[in-house]
Amino acid sequence: MKKTIIASLLLAGAALQQAQAQNITQQQQPFQGVIGKTLAESKESWTPPIKAPKGAPNVIWILLDDVGFGASSTFGGVIRTPTFDSLANNGLRYTNFHTTAICAPTRAALLTGRNSSRVHMAGFAHTVLSAGFPGWDGRIPSDKGTIAEILRENGYNTFQVGKYGLTPDEDATDAGPFDRWPSGKGFDHNFGFLGSQTDQYKPDLVEDNAHATPDGRHLNEQITDKAIFYLTRQHKVAPDKPFFLYYAPGATHAPHQVAKEWSDQYKGKFDAGWDVFREEVFARQKKLGIIPANAVLPARNSSIKEWNSLSADEKRLYARFMEVYAGYLTYTDHEVGRLINYLKESGQLDNTLIYVVIGDNGASKEGTANGDIDRQLFGKPLSEEENIKYNLAKIGEIGTPDAVEGNYPLGWAQAANTPFKYWKQDANSEGGTRNPLIVFYPKGIKDKGTIRTQYGHVIDLLPTTLEFLGIQAPEYIRGIKQDTIQGTSLVYSFDHPDAPSQHHVQYYYIFGSRSIYKDGWKAEVYHHPDFTDLGNAGANQPAPSSGFSTDVWELYNLNTDFNERIDLAKKYPEKLKELQDLFDAQAKNNNLYPLIDWDDVIKRRIHRTADAPKTLTEGIKKAAQGNQ
């Protein structure tokens, strides 16, 4: 009797959801019948129930956080990711896919299929990092509908677990409003956190439209359990109804926290240091065909010390940071594996289209030159010697719940980004913006285990998904006329490895660093880095510029120089001018102006509080703390 009652309630809930979805559609479509004074004089009109296309596959988007191009074994790295290896070996590897160089803009672009500044997320949804301009206010407008909104109106159930990162700080309380929570952007259910980062054992956890109490387990385990719960419940009640799952763990963003059973698997594996790591990964990438056979490894960035010049204590400390990071990534792969195993065991995997984006930007430079264990860096700045001594005293805390910031030193960021220069936040560089993509669909991928080199960007996944499912982008969502989707579907490349790229132009901008791509050519500006984030590591860099007037543009031909080693700006000034003009046009068309760098943010915020953040990294951390 109890089981019958529960089943009835579940069926009633599903019927209510379908009725609500049908009501939305009815609001968009005018009544097609006749209304007279009496029933005899009237003609009924019924809107048919919303159903997904017959045989439509389930869809899963997996987005990892702060993973460099050369970290995972799937793309030549030495960190084991067997789940991703398996998906790629039975699907497609895209090696020329791009993000925006930092988390919130990537996520906004991914979910909407439109450029980040066009959807008002050129920066962040955090108060301390946003600005009162259309491209910068951190509030995605309703005319920029998400993939979840589109699929829900086409008969899908929609779920989100993990990091969302797009809710304005002032809305991120249980009082709402909730229109910019996941539930307001098309997700039937959500479980995770709203900010940029959170403690993995004491997360700022939300479920649906309220904060929830963490149970003490690692967040990766909790979100995987919740995803499996959502999918199990749906499969029992409506086995023929497809689902969309957005699985976005906080991993491998700081804090790097993971059980020692995972990090200890890498004991001693990184004692040879980051220079050897880069060379080993570079060789593996060539062997796998991930990079050209004639590629040349760029020189170590000048802000990073040669490994062999470090003291024994530094080597021991820095190696431990990387052991923890590697264990964290392998553990994350394991949790994704649990989700994949559930689909396999429940008979759903063969009809599930899966995208895995390995990182929302390049590897993180936010761990400083010496690594970051806790929030001591918010206090009085330490000298390099003091910082190393402090971290050595706490080396046993790295990776534990006590390491509330936990992030590896800068040298490992470039190593994890092999074969590129630079790292997260640097929108000028492939090291900041190029992240691997896996496409997996047993029923639809014929050329399994092969590589695709077509140019792609996160705005492409929404139109790729819609084309593959046979769903048209809607003109209206909930009665609101929709803006143009800007991404380019990648379906043309699924069965045609040699097809020319169809995504021709793409701009990038993060707090001053910027670039513009067109058909293999790329013009870029490093701007000035956030030197205070790098501590003494920035000593060898040129002095910061003031504003944008002294910025120096560089020019690269990625067709022959994919990792940006040879600056052609002086050789081809006409091409550089062409791309500069194109950047200007893109900026105007996508709400990017006014250009804002970190100095501008500080100047605009400093008068509001004496505790204003002094660096971009500190601002992100303070914003994240505010959500906890």
TrEMBL record:
Signal in keyword set: yes
GO molecular function, one term: metal ion binding
Entries under Pfam families matching the protein: Sulfatase
Domain Sulfatase N-terminal positions: 57-471
Signal peptide start-end: 1-21
Record's keyword terms, sorted: Calcium, Hydrolase, Metal-binding, Signal
Keyword Cell membrane among record annotations: no
Assigned protein family: Belongs to the sulfatase family.
Protein name, as recorded: Arylsulfatase
Organism listed in the record: Mucilaginibacter mallensis
